[in-house]
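Below is how a single chain appears once it has passed through the pipeline. First comes the sequence as given, then the structure the pipeline wrote out for it. We keep one example in the README because the format questions we get most often are answered faster by looking than by reading.
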Amino acid sequence: MSGEAEEAGDFLALVARLQAEDPRLSGIQAALVAAARTGVANDSRTFARRLDLAHALVLRELNALAERGETIRIDGRDARTMRTRYSLASQAKCP
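Resulting structure:
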């Protein structure tokens, strides 16, 4: 298995584990948390591009997740591009 395929497999396994731990998470929301944990992406545009998703869909899921306030916090927004920077909420950083 190539390194990139192995990393993708590890990422998807983390997404599945996060969804199993919190069934309220959609697949995209679990992937946003996984991306923040692993450093894959910390802004909405990068996340959308790397996972080949529409940016508007990512923004909707990111905002819904941030409103819950348990796992992700919004760190800033670019008004022109709508790029939204995010990180793990403090309680989500603990294993």
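The domain at 3-93 is CATH 1.10.10.10 (Arc Repressor Mutant, subunit A).

See the next section for the split statistics.
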